[in-house]
Amino acid sequence: MAEMTTTKRFSIGYGLLMKKQKSFIQDSLVNLAKERGIDLIKIDTDKPLVDQGPFDCVLHKLYGEEWRKQLREYLVYNPNAIVVDFPDAIERLHNRISMLDVVSEIEEVKSDEMASFGIPKQIVIYEPEKLKEAKTWGEGLKFPVIAKPLVADGSAKSHKMLLIFSSEGFDKLKPPTVLQEFVNHGGVIFKVYVVGKYVKCVKRKSLPDIAEEKLESLHGSLSFSQVSNLTSHDRNDDKYYKRMDLEDAEMPPMSLITNIARGLRKAMKLHLFNFDVIRDTKVGNRYLVIDINYFPGYAKMPGYESVLTDFFWDVLNKKEARSFNSDKELMKLVGNNGAGSDNESSA
Ligand SMILES: Nc1ncnc2c1ncn2[C@@H]1O[C@H](COP(=O)(O)OP(=O)(O)OP(=O)(O)O)[C@@H](O)[C@H]1O
Ligand SMILES: O=P(O)(O)O[C@H]1[C@H](OP(=O)(O)O)[C@@H](OP(=O)(O)O)[C@@H](O)[C@@H](O)[C@@H]1OP(=O)(O)O
Ligand SMILES: [Mg+2]
Ligand SMILES: [Mg+2]
C-alpha cells in the first residue's frame, strides 16, 4: 500500500478591525501562508470565540474587557493555542508614558558606533490651567514642545498632536496630555518594524527642524496628525515639509537599531510592533525613541508576506517565543498580575 504523506496544517484565527483587515490580510499573504501549510481564518467577533476554530494561534489587535474575556475563555478550552500578543503586554503601549518608560529598561550594548539612545524629555499634564501660572514649568522642558494625548488607543483622537511654541499654545490642550520636548532631527524619522526576531528600518518624512532664531517669532500652537503616515499626495502640498531628499538621509547604525528592537521585544514581551526613532541634530549620534505602536502597518514593509509567514511558521512550530502560554503568562492573562518569566531563546 502506498504511504500517505500527511503534512500537518495549521490555522491562525485573526481578530482585526476592518481597516486593519483591509491593509494586512491581502491575497498575497493568505496565499503564501497557505503554501506553507498555514490557513488564515477570520474571527467573527459577533460570535463567541470558543465556538470558532479551533485555531493553533489567535492573532489580534482588538481591545476591551469583553475581548479579553473571550481570549481567556478560549485558552481555558484550548490551552495549547498561542495568543499573539497578550493583552496585558499590549496595554503598556496605550499610555504614552508607560510606552516610553520601557526604553530605560534596555541594556546599552557597547558597539564601535559610539551612538547612544534614549527618549525626549517629557511630562504629563492633567490640569493645563496650572501651567500658565507656573513660573517654571516642566522642570527644564523648553519650547517648542509637542502635546500628545496620553492615551494611545488607536483612535483618531489619540493621534491628534499639537506643536506648541509658547505658553499661549497651552489654551488648546485637552488633558490628559503628554508634553514632549520637540527635538530637531533633520525632517527624517526612522520607523523600525519588528516581527519576532526580524527587524526592518525604513525612512519616512517627518516635521522639519525649527531654527532657534525663528522660535522668537513663533507663538501659540499648530495642530497636526500622523505626519509620517501621510500619502505622497498629502505630502506634495508642502504643508509640513520643506523640499528635502529622503534618499540623502543617513541611516542609523543597524547594530544600535537591532539592539533597541531586541531589548524592547524582551522587555515588553511583544512580537509585533514598530517604533519611531529620530536622530538629535544637535548631538549627531544620539537617537531618541518617540513612539511605539502595536501591530503597525506591516503591508507597507517591502516583502511583508514572507516576513510574516516566516514568523507564523516559527510561532506555530514553537521556534519563536517558547514562553508563550507558560503557566505564569496564562495566569497573567487570566488577571493574576504576577510577573512573567522570560525564557525565550535569544536572537
Ligand atoms: N519629540 C519629538 N520631536 C520632534 N518631532 C516629533 C517628536 N515627537 C513626535 N514628532 C513628530 O510627530 C509625529 C507624530 O508623533 P508620534 O509618532 O508620537 O504620533 P503617533 O500618532 O503615535 O504616530 P503613529 O502614526 O506612528 O502611531 C512623528 O512621526 C514625528 O514626525
Ligand atoms: O492600521 P491601524 O489602524 O492599526 O493603524 C496603524 C498604522 O498602520 P496602517 O498603515 O495600517 O494604518 C501605523 O502606521 P505605520 O507606523 O506602520 O506607518 C501606525 O500609524 C499605527 O500607530 C496605527 O495604529 P493605531 O495606533 O492607530 O492603532
Ligand atoms: Mg509615530
Ligand atoms: Mg503611535
TrEMBL record:
1D-myo-inositol 1,3,4-trisphosphate binds at K20, K61, H159, K191, N293, G297. It is an enzyme of class 2 (transferase). Mg(2+) 1 binds at D276, D291. It catalyses: 1D-myo-inositol 3,4,5,6-tetrakisphosphate + ATP = 1D-myo-inositol 1,3,4,5,6-pentakisphosphate + ADP + H(+). It comes from the Eukaryota. Its cofactor is Mg(2+). Mg(2+) 2 binds at D291, N293. Residues 12-90 form the Inositol-tetrakisphosphate 1-kinase N-terminal domain. Transmembrane segments: none annotated. One of its GO terms (biological process) is inositol trisphosphate metabolic process. Keywords: ATP-binding, Kinase, Magnesium, Metal-binding, Nucleotide-binding, Transferase. Its EC number is 2.7.1.134. ATP binds at residues 96, 148, 180-191, 206. Binds 2 magnesium ions per subunit. The keyword Phosphoprotein does not apply. The keyword Transferase applies. Residues 113-314 form the Inositol 1,3,4-trisphosphate 5/6-kinase ATP-grasp domain. GO terms for molecular function: ATP binding; inositol-1,3,4-trisphosphate 5-kinase activity; inositol-1,3,4-trisphosphate 6-kinase activity; inositol-3,4,5,6-tetrakisphosphate 1-kinase activity; magnesium ion binding. Belongs to the ITPK1 family. PANTHER family: INOSITOL-TETRAKISPHOSPHATE 1-KINASE (PTHR14217), INOSITOL-TETRAKISPHOSPHATE 1-KINASE 1 (PTHR14217:SF24). Monomer. Kinase that can phosphorylate various inositol polyphosphate such as Ins(3,4,5,6)P4 or Ins(1,3,4)P3. This is Inositol-tetrakisphosphate 1-kinase. It comes from Lactuca sativa.
